Amino acid sequence: MELSIVIPVYNEAGAITQNLSVIAAELNEISEHSFQIIIVNDGSKDKTADEVRSLCKQNNSLELISFNRNFGKESALHAGLDYASGDAVIVMDSDLQHPPAMIVDMIELWMNGAKVVDGCKASRGRESVLSACLSKGFYYLFRKLTRIDIENNSDFKLLDREVVDAYCELSERKRFFRGMIPYLGFHTKRILFEVPERCSGESSWSRFNLFKFALTALSSFTSAPLHLVSLMSMLFFMASILIGGIAVYDKITGDAVTGFTTVILLILITGSLIMFALGQIGIYIEQMFDELKKRPYYIVDKKNSYLKK
To answer: With contact defined as beta carbons under 8 Å apart, do 25 and 50 qualify?
Structure first.
């Protein structure tokens, strides 16, 4: 059987040759299967594409897809899955934080009937307390709002051909790979791994980018925030009736005093609620706007790619 390996990369020129050699060495140990390795260059600004293209000329199993510009990791994953021809596809990062030694165990679980083999982090490695708290908060919200548990999941997955085809048929533009695979509902086996240190470089994901990505993930899977706005509006309406009743009673009994503080507080609370509601609505309008434009997920730079089909 042929298996495809999809590896999205962005500005990895400093370590891509060494890391791919480690991955290739692990694959050479699996003699009963052939492998197609697809590197998706997500508009890197360094020499990543040149490094991979030279490797493609030395390794017949290696292929390169280069984008015209940076479209984002989700688009890179989608492109790799579109081009992958294997009976199963393994998605992994190039920085070796997804251990290549785990591939043989993932294949074994797949051969035993699993449609999806999900690489899950046994621990989150070395990260700050703030990052850990933010991650836990996001996973908690996602689980409560969508009823899909993706805590400690990663993009390190093996997908059967049936799963790949089902994923590629989904039409939405804003994608969240980690959430969409469990959404499909195929039989899944989990496999734990420890996250090793990066060999070189730093992650290109800033906290701001992660925050935007979290908003996209939540709004793609649930409309609960909009219902939350409606619930808060009802609570504030009930509170306003109560406060209004007290104010009228004080007026009738002659106990009314200058209510400047109360008025200011009500204005601030009401204004904050309105701004929050507008923000939530804006996120969903943005989602609809992006979907209606129907722009392509990615644009391949054929001149700088190296494909065998």
So the answer is: no
Which residues are CB-neighbours of 281 under 8 A, at least 6 positions away?
226, 229
Q: Residue for token digits 């990066």?
A: 198
Would you say residue 256 has pLDDT above 60?
no
Alpha carbons 67 and 48: distance in angstroms, whole number? 12
Please provide residue 97's backbone torsions phi and psi, each rounded to the nearest 5 degrees: -75, -15
> What per-residue confidence (pLDDT) applies to 292?
73
Confidence check: pLDDT of 67 > 80 = yes
Tokens found for residue 141 = 């919200």
% of the chain exceeding 90 in pLDDT: 37
What tokens does 77 get? Answer: 């994953």
Q: Which two tokens stand for residue 194?
A: 């420890």
Residue 222 has pLDDT above 60, yes or no: yes
- For 274, residues 6+ apart whose C-beta sits below 8 A from its C-beta are none
When the candidates are 3.30.1250.10, 3.40.50.720, 3.90.550.10, 3.40.50.1100, the CATH number that belongs to 2-203+297-304 is 3.90.550.10
Cβ-contact 76, 94 below 8 angstroms: no
pLDDT in tens, 73-90: 889 999 999 999 999 999
